Amino acid sequence: MERSRFLLSIMLLLVHHSSICTVGATQTNITTDQSALLALKSHITSDPHNILANWSTTTSVCNWVGITCGARHIRVASLNLSYMSFTGTIPPHLGNLSFLVALTFKNNNFHGTLPHELSYLRRLKLINFGFNNFMGSIPSWFGSFPKLQSFNLYGNQFSGSIPATIFNLSTLQHIDLGINKLSGTYVMYSIVDLSLCFNIFLRLEYITGAILREIGNLTMLKEIHLDSNNFNEIPKEIGHLDQVVGLNVEVNALKGPVPVAVFNMSSLIVLTLYGNSLSGGLPNNICQHLPSLQILNLGRNQFDGPLPSRLWQCREFLKLILEENNFSGSIPKNIGNLTMMKEIYLGKNSLTGTIPDEISHLLNLEGLSIEQNNLNGLFPSSILNISTMRTLSLSFNQLWGSLPANIGLGLPNLQHLYIAANDLNGEIPNLSNASTLIKIDLNQNSFTGFIPRTLCALANLQWLNLG
Ligand SMILES: *[C@@H]1O[C@H](CO)[C@@H](O)[C@H](O)[C@H]1NC(C)=O
Ligand SMILES: *[C@@H]1O[C@H](CO)[C@@H](O)[C@H](O)[C@H]1NC(C)=O
Ligand SMILES: *[C@@H]1O[C@H](CO)[C@@H](O)[C@H](O)[C@H]1NC(C)=O
Ligand SMILES: *[C@@H]1O[C@H](CO)[C@@H](O)[C@H](O)[C@H]1NC(C)=O
Ligand SMILES: *[C@@H]1O[C@H](CO)[C@@H](O)[C@H](O)[C@H]1NC(C)=O
Ligand SMILES: *[C@@H]1O[C@H](CO)[C@@H](O)[C@H](O)[C@H]1NC(C)=O
Ligand SMILES: *[C@@H]1O[C@H](CO)[C@@H](O)[C@H](O)[C@H]1NC(C)=O
Ligand SMILES: *[C@@H]1O[C@H](CO)[C@@H](O)[C@H](O)[C@H]1NC(C)=O
Ligand SMILES: *[C@@H]1O[C@H](CO)[C@@H](O)[C@H](O)[C@H]1NC(C)=O
Ligand SMILES: *[C@@H]1O[C@H](CO)[C@@H](O)[C@H](O)[C@H]1NC(C)=O
Ligand SMILES: *[C@@H]1O[C@H](CO)[C@@H](O)[C@H](O)[C@H]1NC(C)=O
Ligand SMILES: *[C@@H]1O[C@H](CO)[C@@H](O)[C@H](O)[C@H]1NC(C)=O
Fold first, then answer.
1. Ligand 8 pocket by Cβ (under 6 Å)
2. 396 vs 453, which has greater pLDDT?
3. Can you tell me which atom of ligand 4 is nearest the CA of 115?
4. Ligand closest to the CA atom of residue 216
5. Burial (CB count within 10 angstroms: exposed 0-12, middle 13-18, buried 19+), residue 9
6. Which of 10, 191, 321, 355 is the most buried (most CB within 10 A)?
């Protein structure tokens, strides 16, 4: 099997080499760049903002919108057509922009196939085809850029597997293939003339989950975004990557426990595995292994067991998202030691016990959401003094007691107050000083008395439920 793959690589390499030689034989200059760009212009079928009127041959291409020329060679170094609302295809002529360092087409409507001539662009450091309409498999020639640092194909409709050649891009620091239809299971490897045998061989390989194994070779990687695809396994080799600050594999088909290798990526700042089918308990000492972690998003999975009790070790935490799992037990009091925390989402779990008063020590908190659990005890009024709070959601628990008279005073930034379906009683408090309130849900409680006239002072209010 290894040998077959090796042969495939050799075949590809030969194809590339012969083509490179053809191009190398012709001298290129700024006129070549101009004809390449005019070819691109003629392949753009819709230009609603009439931007390309600017691409006139009466002036040097270096003055054209979206073009930056290098200072030394006076050749096109950057082609940036981001957010121009173009519809069109990419002509092979772009492969003649031999001094191109950055190629950015993001947020347009380019479609069709990407011509293999782009692989001649040996100086490229940045490729961004994000949010266009390319489909089919990711061409294997993307592995032929010896200096590539940033590789972005997010928001297209690429399917099949990630070609192994990509894992040869040893200078790669940033890879974003999110929001596509990539998977490790279904292989639609569309390199011409692959024999049936080859297809079967590749399919077998990916079913065993080895698809991303080689990702462990890309030791310069800092950011990995594979979100919204169909991957079902994170390989253990990812644990070799000790410079990665961001790993995002949310909304995929991952299952089983959080791969232990992830806890070996000690430089991680953001870890997002939201929306998979991961299960089991969380290790207690996450932040002993990941001391720089600021954002942990494990929401919408099937985790259970207690919340990690050594949360206080996560000194850098800014956001903790564990909503929509089945965590049980109580909220550790030492959550109050994480004083930089901005957002805590623990809703839709099976948490019990009281809301620890220590949460009121979190004086930077902007969002606290613990709705739909089984929390009980006195309503934690002290959190109504966290002046940074924007969203407070404690609905669907068994909290009781009354609310202090003018809770608005301590909440000048509050926009969303959801405390429905608890056992709260007493008068509805004055909220007039929480002047930024947009939505209030006090539904299904036992409040009594009059509806305070002062609610009328809330000029931004759009939604009020007192049912
Ligand atoms: C570019 O090269 C072509 C021939 O390859 C030549 O005819 C042309 O004058 C050159 N243009 C410039 C601007 O050097
Ligand atoms: C094209 O746009 C650039 C930058 O916006 C401007 O400097 C140049 O004069 C324009 N050229 C033409 C032909 O309109
Ligand atoms: C491309 O242009 C967009 C908007 O004009 C800009 O935000 C972005 O930084 C540019 N990217 C590169 C790589 O030059
Ligand atoms: C540029 O590329 C096209 C298509 O790949 C090719 O036909 C053309 O001869 C190339 N060379 C020049 C100098 O434009
Ligand atoms: C990676 O690059 C090396 C050397 O450039 C080459 O020998 C090897 O075949 C390449 N592997 C893949 C999978 O492209
Ligand atoms: C990855 O690294 C291993 C060990 O260094 C090497 O054997 C393998 O060929 C590499 N794979 C690729 C695709 O470069
Ligand atoms: C964990 O990281 C260390 C140091 O970077 C490395 O030596 C080790 O092989 C890694 N273990 C795993 C399971 O990736
Ligand atoms: C959630 O966990 C509790 C035990 O803590 C268990 O009784 C319950 O069945 C679990 N719910 C789901 C949906 O797995
Ligand atoms: C956490 O905060 C509590 C007070 O709420 C304090 O007693 C304890 O020493 C703190 N722990 C650490 C590890 O800082
Ligand atoms: C909120 O803070 C004010 C002023 O510091 C204090 O008087 C009040 O008792 C506090 N309220 C709660 C519920 O802790
Ligand atoms: C709300 O404020 C009004 C006037 O500002 C006051 O008369 C009333 O008693 C207050 N209601 C409560 C519940 O504190
Ligand atoms: C609270 O709101 C009232 C009425 O809008 C206002 O007179 C008062 O100054 C406000 N108090 C504070 C502390 O903002």
1. 304, 326, 328, 350
2. 396
3. 5
4. 6
5. middle
6. 355
pLDDT at 159 over 50: yes
The structure tokens 């380019």 sit at 110
CA 462 to CA 440: how far, in whole Å?
A: 9
Nearest ligand atom owner, CA of 60: 2
* 56: number of Cβ within 10 Å: 10
Tally of residues, the chain:
467
On the question of pLDDT at 185 being above 60, the answer is no
- Which helix (H) or strand (E) is 19 found in, with range? helix 2-25
Q: Whose CA is nearest to atom 10 of ligand 5?
A: 168
Residue 17 has pLDDT above 50, yes or no: no
At residue 275, does pLDDT exceed 80? yes
Q: What is the pLDDT of residue 196?
A: 52
What pLDDT shows up at residue 23?
44
Neighbours of 465 (CB within 10 A): 12
Ligand 6 center to 216 CA (angstroms): 9
Q: Which residues line ligand 9 at a C-beta cut-off of 6 Å?
A: 312, 334, 336-337, 358
Give the best-scoring range by mean pLDDT among 7-11, 39-43, 194-198, 406-410: 39-43
Q: Which residue has the higher pLDDT, 405 or 293?
A: 293
Separation of CA 30 and ligand 1 centre (Å):
8
Check pocket membership of 63 for ligand 2, CB cut-off 6 A: yes
Q: 54-63 long-range contacts, Cβ below 8 Å, gap at least 24?
A: 60/30, 61/30, 61/33, 61/34, 61/37, 62/30
Does 202 or 304 have the greater pLDDT score?
304
Strands 302-306 and 416-418: unpaired
Determine the distance separating the centroid of ligand 11 and the alpha carbon of 426, expressed in angstroms.
13
Q: Which residues pair with 67 in a beta bridge?
A: 79
pTM: 0.85
